[in-house]
Every structure is written in structure tokens, then in C-alpha cells.
């Protein structure tokens, strides 16, 4: 039995007789170093733009809660703000199916070019919505509608960019190439955090509430146009072009995924759980946690998260390299075990209220998260064959993020209120790590093997 057949057998898929399982690029689709460089650049910039747009809401949650919701106690307003944040995630599984269908049927490039336009327009519109004091209940309703559009757009981005990079990469560097996706996501978060820190330090609270919070959202339009322009200048991936030339795709990728690749779908959804909860608790919710729950100043909270994000970006590429060397499964298992053992002690240290300790703890948590996040894109892309890769990735990634990622800030705030314990978000992270560990244990190792095509 060949390596590829072994992988298929381990993952619960029986290749059809005479089918070609592997992606071995034909001479017509050889890729130059210059092309790969442009692919990496375009993927980084496009993903950076989308996730800057998407993340600014989380960093400005405290201000948004006062602008869009009626006067009430602070925790209720925050719950309402994070509730809107969570509801926008519920459309993401639907978006995963639709973007997956477009990406697997019409091409990765087509899906990615459309998604960035939607995200940029929706984010720009947030800057134009009047507050509750001006239009009453229509303010949070309009905010919710725009966030739903953002959620739908984001559903196609992470999966599409990952599939794009993995299909362009050489077999021994797929982990490194795919690590560009979480790195660019963190870079978008980093810019959002820097802008939030800058605005909170140079503007008065009144100026920030009245108009300052709108400025980052206004940047969405020009940034989105730049990202889309760069993407339209690329060819689609060699793997997809070969599939299209052979007319070997499937008319209903989602149906094919559920019919043939159910085990991979379950494994992928479980494996994403640590990423979903960890990403939004550690990199998005943390400034709010530090300021609202621990009493830190807004500027200090944003600064601590900004430092942690910068270190995260550096760690993520090291993780991508390590996953190419040691394998996806080993890296993902290590990440889960570390979170199970160290998360609650780390949250205990946050309560010391010492700025240096808080920065070091956030760097530690971010570094642990990179072991998962830097490995996950290549792992998920390698689980599924070319004809359903975008769909399989997008549906599993967005389903887990909808149920547990988008709700993470809401759940963290709610659990703190219910338990009166500031450690509640830490225990929530531990539970996510346990589920991810179990899922990964059932997966086959996919690194260093040809991509599955059928």
C-alpha cells in the first residue's frame, strides 16, 4: 500500500478504483519562486485587511457598548456588545458552505476576491451608523446586520487563503507557507490594537465616544480596494487548475464532503476548538478583560496585548517550520497539553495586576497558542482532497468558530458573572484544549505527503 493510500485508509476514506489520489503538478503548472513570493504577499495583505476589519470591533467593545446600547449597568452593556459579536458568527457556517462551493467550483481566487470586497464595505458602514442616542433601537439593529455581513465574509477568508497557500507550496514547506495566514490575521489584530491604544491615549473619553471610535472603521474601504487589486493579479492554484482542466471537480462539494469525508469533518471541527476559543479570548477579548475585570487602564491593556501580538507573529512562523519538521499531529497535541496544564496558573498571575507580569503571561499564552494556530491551517488543508478542500476547511473551521469562537468573549463575561471568579475564562480555555486533544488523537499525520486530490 502506498503512503497516499495509507493516509486515505487512516482517515476513513476509501479511494475509488483507478482514482488519482495525489496532487502532483503537471509540467504545465510548475511554479516559479517569484510566483510563490507574490502569492505569499497577496495572501498576507488580503487576510490582514479582512481581519483588521473584523477585529477592530472587539478592541473597541467597551466604547461601542456605550454608543449603541441604552444606559444600563456596565456588564449588561458589555454582554449586549459581545452578544452582537457572537451572533455575527452564527452566519459563518452558512458562509462556509457558500464560499466553499464557490472556491471548489469556480476557484480559490474568485472566492477570495469577492470576500474582501464584502468585508471592507460592511466594516466601512459601521463607521456611518448613528448611535443609540440619535436613532434609538435602530442603532444596535443596524450594527447587528452589518456584523452579520462581516461574519459571512470572514467565513471564506481563513479557509480560502490557507488552501491557496498550501496548494502553491512545495510539499516540505506547506506548514511554513500556511503559517502566513494566522500571522497576517495577528498582524491585522496588531494594527487594530495599536490604533485602539493610540486613540485611547490621545483622545479624551468624550472624543473617543463621540467620533474617535469610528476612525479605524473608515480605513476599511481604501485597504479593501488595495487587497482586492493585488488578489486579482494572481492565477488560481496549480491544484485547482489541474482539477478544472480534467473536469474532475464535483457539482456539490458539500454533499461529497458529508458523504465521503465525514470523519475528517468531525476531526477538523474538534481540532479547531482550541484555536476558536484561544484566539478570541487571548488576542481579542483580553484588553476588555484587563480593563473591565482587573481594573487596568485602557491604554495599558491595549499596550500589553499589542506586545503579545507582536511576539505571536514571530512565534507563528517558527511553529510553521516546526510543523514541517516534526509533523502536524505532534505540534497540535503539544499545544493542547500545555493549555490544559498552564492556562489557569497563567490567569492567576494576571490577577497580580503587575504590568510586566501581565505582558509576560500574555506572551506565554500567545506562544502556546501559536503551536496550534501555526499548525492548524496546513493540517486542515491536508485533511481534505482538492475537490472539497475549500468546503471541508471552511465548514469545519467556521462551525467551530460560530459555536465557540464568536461566543468566547460573551461566555467569558457571562461565566465571570455567574461564578464570581476571574479565572472562569481560563477554565473555559482548558475545556476547549481537552476537546481539541481528543480530536487530534484520532487524526492521521499528513505532513510530508502529497496532497490528496480525490
UniProtKB/TrEMBL annotation:
Concerning InterPro entries, the annotation shows: H+-coupled_symporters, MFS, MFS_dom, MFS_trans_sf, Sugar_transporter_CS
> From the UniProt record, which GO molecular function terms apply?
symporter activity
Q: Where are the transmembrane segments?
A: 51-70, 76-99, 111-129, 135-155, 176-199, 211-230, 265-286, 301-319, 331-349, 355-372, 393-420, 426-444
The cross-references to Pfam families, in alphabetical order and at most eight, read: MFS_1
Q: Which domain of life is it from?
A: Bacteria
Predominantly, its location class is membrane
Q: Which UniProt keywords apply?
A: Cell membrane, Membrane, Symport, Transmembrane, Transmembrane helix, Transport
For this record, the Gene Ontology CC terms, alphabetical, are:
plasma membrane
Where is this protein found? Cell membrane
Biased composition regions of type Low complexity, renumbered to the chain: 8-19
Answer whether the UniProt record assigns the keyword Cell membrane to this protein.
yes
Bias class Polar residues marks the residues at 21-30
Membrane topology reported for the UniProt record:
Multi-pass membrane protein
The segments labelled Disordered in the record are: 1-33
Q: Which residues form the Major facilitator superfamily (MFS) profile domain?
A: 39-448
Q: Which PANTHER family match?
A: ALPHA-KETOGLUTARATE PERMEASE
Q: Which family does it belong to?
A: Belongs to the major facilitator superfamily. Metabolite:H+ Symporter (MHS) family (TC 2.A.1.6) family.
Q: What does this protein do?
A: May be a proton symporter involved in the uptake of osmolytes such as proline and glycine betaine.
Kindly provide the name given to this protein in its UniProt entry: Putative proline/betaine transporter
Q: What lineage, starting at the top, does this entry show?
A: Bacteria, Bacillati, Actinomycetota, Actinomycetes, Micrococcales
Amino acid at each position: 500500500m502506498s503512503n497516499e493510500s495509507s493516509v486515505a485508509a487512516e482517515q476513513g476514506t476509501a479511494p475509488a478504483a483507478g482514482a488519482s489520489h495525489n496532487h502532483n503538478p503537471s509540467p504545465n503548472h510548475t511554479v516559479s519562486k517569484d510566483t510563490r513570493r507574490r502569492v505569499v504577499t497577496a495572501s498576507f495583505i488580503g487576510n490582514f485587511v479582512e481581519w483588521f476589519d473584523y477585529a477592530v470591533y472587539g478592541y473597541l467593545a467597551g466604547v461601542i457598548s456605550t454608543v449603541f446600547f441604552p444606559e444600563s449597568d456596565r456588564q449588561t452593556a458589555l454582554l449586549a456588545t459581545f452578544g452582537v459579536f457572537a451572533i455575527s458568527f452564527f452566519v459563518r457556517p452558512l458562509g462556509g458552505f457558500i464560499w466553499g462551493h464557490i472556491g471548489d467550483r469556480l476557484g480559490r481566487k474568485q472566492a477570495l476576491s469577492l470576500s474582501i470586497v464584502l468585508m471592507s464595505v460592511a466594516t466601512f458602514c459601521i463607521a456611518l451608523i448613528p448611535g443609540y442616542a440619535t436613532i434609538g433601537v435602530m442603532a444596535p439593529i443596524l450594527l447587528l446586520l452589518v456584523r452579520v455581513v462581516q461574519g459571512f465574509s470572514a467565513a471564506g477568508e481563513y479557509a480560502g487563503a490557507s488552501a491557496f497557500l498550501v496548494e502553491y507550496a512545495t510539499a516540505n514547506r506547506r506548514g511554513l507557507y500556511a503559517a502566513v495566514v494566522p500571522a497576517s490575521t495577528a498582524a491585522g489584530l496588531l494594527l487594530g490594537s495599536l490604533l485602539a491604544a493610540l486613540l485611547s491615549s490621545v483622545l479624551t473619553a468624550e472624543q473617543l465616544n463621540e467620533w474617535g471610535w469610528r476612525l479605524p472603521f473608515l480605513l476599511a474601504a481604501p485597504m479593501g480596494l488595495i487587497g482586492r487589486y493585488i488578489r486579482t493579479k494572481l492565477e488560481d492554484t496549480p491544484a485547482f487548475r489541474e482539477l478544472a482542466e480534467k473536469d474532475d471537480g464535483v457539482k456539490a462539494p458539500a454533499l461529497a464532503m458529508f458523504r465521503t469525508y465525514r470523519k475528517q469533518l468531525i476531526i477538523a471541527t474538534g481540532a479547531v476548538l482550541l484555536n476558536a476559543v484561544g484566539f478570541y479570548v487571548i488576542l481579542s477579548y483580553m484588553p476588555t478583560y484587563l480593563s473591565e475585570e482587573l481594573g487596568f487602564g485602557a491604554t495599558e491593556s491595549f499596550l500589553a496585548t499589542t506586545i503579545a501580538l507582536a511576539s505571536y507573529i514571530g512565534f507563528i512562523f517558527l511553529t510553521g517550520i516546526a510543523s514541517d519538521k516534526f509533523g502536524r499531529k505532534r505540534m497540535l497535541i503539544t499545544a493542547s497539553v500545555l493549555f490544559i496544564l498552564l492556562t489557569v496558573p497563567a490567569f492567576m498571575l494576571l490577577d497580580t495586576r503587575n504590568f510586566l507580569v501581565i505582558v509576560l503571561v500574555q506572551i506565554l499564552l500567545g506562544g502556546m497558542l501559536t503551536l496550534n494556530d501555526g499548525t492548524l491551517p496546513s493540517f486542515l488543508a491536508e485533511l481534505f482532497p482538492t475537490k472539497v478542500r475549500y468546503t471541508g476547511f471552511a465548514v469545519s473551521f467556521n462551525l467551530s468558530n460560530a459555536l465557540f469562537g464568536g461566543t468566547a468573549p460573551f461566555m467569558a463575561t457571562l461565566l465571570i458573572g455567574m461564578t464570581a471568579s476571574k479565572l472562569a475564562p481560563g477554565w473555559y480555555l482548558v475545556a476547549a484544549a481537552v476537546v481539541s486533544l481528543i480530536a487530534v488523537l484520532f487524526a492521521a499525520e499528513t505532513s510530508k505527503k502529497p496532497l490528496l486530490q480525490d
